[in-house]
Amino acid sequence: MFKVVITDYIGPEVEVEKSIIGDLAEIEPLLARSLAELEGKVDDADAIIIFHEVSLPEAVISRLSNCRVIARGGVGYDAVDFRFAGKLGIPVCNVPDYGVDEVADQAIGMMIALNRGFLKAERGLKSSLEPWDCRAVKPVKRLSGATLGIVGLGRIGQATAQRARAMRMRVIAYDPYLRPGTEKVFGVEMVSFEELLSTSDVVSLHVPLTKETEGLIDNDALSRMKSDSILVNTSRGSVVNTAALAQALRSGKIAAAGIDVLPIEPASEDEPLIQLWREADETNVNLIITPHTAFYSAEAMLEIRTKTAMEVARALRGEKLVNCVNSQWLPDKIRERVLIGVPPTV
Ligand code: NAD
Fold first, then answer.
1. Within this chain, do residues 20 and 118 fall inside the same structural domain, yes or no?
2. CATH number of domain containing 265
3. Range of the domain at 17
4. Ligand 1, closest atom to CA 260?
5. H helices within the chain, ranges in order?
6. How far is the CA of 128 from the centre of ligand 1 (A)?
7. In this model, does residue 344 exceed pLDDT 90?
8. pTM, entire model
């Protein structure tokens, strides 16, 4: 029998995983919340499943003696040193397609909630039933005809664009790596990052966390945005400089923000956005924070666990992998063995 370790988040109940890899492997859920809790428990694993409460840096990966795959139960894989794993011949896989609709719903939901003043009106009513009219939410700008700027027009960006188009918004996007023509399928106009910032009524972030996107929304970017605009971040916390955003919200440089992700999670009291959010009273609700829940639905959770375990099963059986994200760092022999081929060219 192989040994599959689930580092965090899922356990002690692992029935979903057992139903897929139970005949191949013993499954050990560690429920770890720190690197120290992984010490001595993953080194001999044949496969590792990692969710989001721990990371796998070089120091841990370098001790893996048998590992055939590291499977990330999620889209982003920035918490795994995937380059180093690749050089050691360990494929890293993700599940890119489990929560696309949920995250797009959350981004659009945050945009609508902030634009329509839901929280401002609802919280205000708790202390007084007056005013019982539009004074409770003023000013509100019409969303149809307004411009949504999407940064990163991948799966979630596209699903968000489709929803916004159905709401008759104008949708523009910035994504230097997009396959040309994709935007036409979604009725989106590609623009430069600067143009997106200066012309959007709502900016929604859907990029992975990379060296390029870390701190992408900083003081300079915020100062290019319209003073009545809304920023929505359901991507990764570190894409935004949160101290700069807190300052921009305080000073009215932008109007509002919807935030599902923070640079350090779980959030701490000294996070600038948490401090601002705690200070806000019911007359000034311009910041919505949710605790990294955008991906979640009962269906998405089952899908993610199922697909992660299926990828591990493929690795243990020596079959081709579906979602390997570090193929360019794998030694040639392993790359050929694990990768599903690309369509032939003429
Ligand atoms: P994706 O890979 O399908 O799309 C990402 C897009 O970003 C790609 O089109 C890529 O070309 C583009 N991109 C990369 N670098 C860029 C840059 N410097 N500037 C502009 N565009 C750039 O990924 P996805 O499935 O759409 O997910 C997007 C991100 O959402 C993930 O990377 C993940 O971090 C985050 N996410 C969050 C949650 C949540 O619960 N909040 C859930 C799932 C995914």
1. no
2. 3.40.50.720
3. 2-97+297-339
4. 41
5. 15-21, 58-61, 82-87, 100-116, 118-127, 155-166, 182-185, 193-199, 219-224, 242-251, 272-279, 298-317, 332-338
6. 42
7. no
8. 0.92
